[in-house]
Structure formats: structure tokens, C-alpha cells
Amino acid sequence: MKRYLWVLGFIACLCIGLSVPAQQNQGSRGTVLLLDIQGVIGPAVSGYVQRAMERGGDKGAALIILRMDTPGGLDRAMRDIIRDILASPVPVVGYVAPSGARAASAGTYIMYASHIAAMAPATNLGAATPVQLPMGAPPSPGEGEGKEEGQSSQEAMARKAINDAVAYIKGLAAQRGRNAEWAEQAVREAASLSAQEALELGVIDLVAADIPTLLKNLDGRTVSVAGGETTLRTTGMTITRVEPNWRDRLLAIIANPNVAYILMLVGVYGLIFELANPGFILPGVVGTISLLLALYAFQVLPISSAGLALMLLGIAFMVAEVFVPSFGALGVGGVIAFVIGSVILLDTDVPGYEISWPLIIAAALTSAAFLFVVLSLAIRSQQRPVVSGREQMVGAVGKVTGVSGDTATVRLHGELWSAQGTEPITLGQRVRVTGLEGLRLKVKPEPEEDHHD
Hints:
The chain has helices at 2-29, 43-58, 75-86, 106-113, 153-176, 180-188, 195-200, 211-218, 246-254, 257-276, 282-300, 305-323, 329-343, 357-383; strands at 31-38, 63-69, 92-96, 102-104, 116-119, 124-126, 192-194, 206-207, 222-225, 228-231, 238-241, 397-404, 407-412, 415-421, 430-437, 440-445.
């Protein structure tokens, strides 16, 4: 029995000894998290990248790849992503792919911030000039920061924005050891480079056609991350693609300026309809939900407070036209304020973050058509004869059913009224009411030729 026990113990130790290197080898390979950044960089993209990086840090990912194809995006979202990259203990690779992709504007800054910058063949990056600039010519290289004599405030603000962007990207270039001189050209002159040119000028670290080639070329490289230096061992790594969660997808939908714009209109008009017709419930519920979603979207979008105020003022004027007849003055003013507010609602010129002109025109025409219908009904109702009250008696025609001295009895609207004629009247004669004193009518004979029985 002891001999058998020794044999079993030896076999168990041998199995454990063989399994430990295998586990260590499996751990050394690690996991690569692949994130796709496609389209405009906005709040949804920055939230998606932030959560993926947190997941990578918590689960011990060995590498994070940001595969990009973007025309740029919002400054705040870009800076949030760069802040996460700089603080990441996991190496981050900025990779412009597939062939034909680009990393323009905000994408260029993210490439400079990444621990390793790579591009696929037939891709490009650059054109990093801030697009959210006041009207005026961009400053040329070498000009000072201060406001020169004869220079407008808008030009001075443009100069400050350019210089701030230059300082930012040069700081990233210095931290990663990349070409700072070309980075300044990308900001001041909107310069762009192909993948091969970027490699030759030291803007990126390597060119790779696909992810496997990229991982092969990264093997053995040493990079400096937030926790210190680390050497990449990318051979045999497992690639895990990280998809946006439901929150990121919802934010990506409602943060679309056109969708947020429609949600706001649905919300405002839904609440107005509910307040004008209490008890319908459905318009109020739909309006409240739509308005809350729109407000959440506006919270993460660069909204102009003046534009939003003009839109709300325009809607208020159009609604007031229904209750306070101004013969179109409030309505026309409301439509004008609504259109102007819609145009300047978003305080940015970033492509993909503007409200569609057809949508603005459609919303304005719909509101104008509604006002036209309301005003037409109001004018028609004013021109219609009065059918109730004392006013409807004047001008009505009745028949004399009895005469007693200067007083007569007149049948009018199926009722018998006491009447006094301004002229002599006879039994059976038709008379027209000219006035009303208390409960006595003032009448005059009606010419017989005006009535044909």
C-alpha cells in the first residue's frame, strides 16, 4: 500500500509540475482587447472606450488596440479618451485600419497619445486644425499670441484656440517621442500624411496590413505606461473584440443632433397638447419621455444656450398665437425665432454634429402650416354670423302675429317676442330686428321682395 501511495503521489506531483508551466505560459500570452472607433468621435465613443479600458485593467488584459476610421469629433470627447490612454496601465495601440481609413482631426491627437501608433497601408492622418473657431482667418505660424493692434476679437480667439491645440499635441509628441514639428503643421496648416510618409517622418511606429501582422511586429517592444515600462509579448495572444453596450448604443442614437432635435420637438408639443387637452395622458407620457431623452442628449452635446432659448421662444410664440389672436404677428415671429434658434443650436462646426437643413425646414413648415390652419379657422369664425346670445337677434327676420296699438307680437326663432316698430307694421308682415331693449325688440318692416317663400 505504501508503495502504491508513493507512486500515486509521484504521479500527482508530476501532473502539477507539468500544469504550472502551461498555466504560466497561458498567462504570459494574455488577451488583446480590440475596440473599433468608427465615425465621428462623440460622448458615446468616449464612454465606450473608457469602460473598455476599465474592463481591460480589471481583467488583466495585456494590450488594447483602438482600430480607428474617423473624420474627427468633439474636443471634449477626444480629451476624455486621451486622458484615459495616458492613465492606462495597459499599453494602448492606436491603429488606423483597414486600408482606406483615416484618423483626421481628433483621431490624429489620439494617435499621438497612444503608446504605439500604427497604420495600415493606404490610410492617412492629419488635418488636426480645430474646427470650432470664430469667424476670421486662422493665424499663421510664427505669429504671437497677443491681440495685435487692428486685430478683431474673433481673430484673437482663433489664435488662442490654435496655439492651445499646438501646445497640446506637441506635449503628446514629446511624451511619446514622436515628430513634434509635423504635429504643429497638422494643427496650423491642416497637413496630412499617408501611412508610409508618417512612418518615414517618425509620426507613427509601424505599418501593418492587419491585426495578426500588427501583433507580430509588436512582439518584444518595450513601452512606458502609467505603471512603468513593460515589454510586449504578443505572440499567441487571444484577441477579444469589445462591443458597445446598450447604454453606449442608446447614447449614440440620441446624441445624434437630428434625433435629439426631433425628441425635443416631440416632447414640447406633446406636453402642450396634454396641457390643452387634460386627460389624454398618452401625449403627456410620450412628451415627457422624449423631452427627458432630449435633455440628456443636450447635456453631452455642445449646445448653444442662445439657440435653445430662441427655439423655445419661437414655440411659445406659435402656441400663444392660438390663444391670443394677433393676426399672424406672434406666429410669424415664432417661426422666424424657431428657425434661427435651430440653425445656431449646436455650438460646433464638427462634421456630423450639425442639424440637417431639410429637417429644420420641415419642422418650420409643419409649424407654419399648423398656424395657417388655426388662423384660417379663427378668421372664418369671426366672419360667421353670430348664432347665439343677444347679438344674434339683431338682423334676424320674424313675422308679426299680433298688433296692439304701437306694440306688436313677433314670432322669431320659434319664440314670441314683444316688439315695437320704428314704422307702422301690420299683421302677418315680415319685420327685421334693428335692436333690443331689455326683452322688447325694435323692428322695422322687411321688404317683401327680399323673401320668396
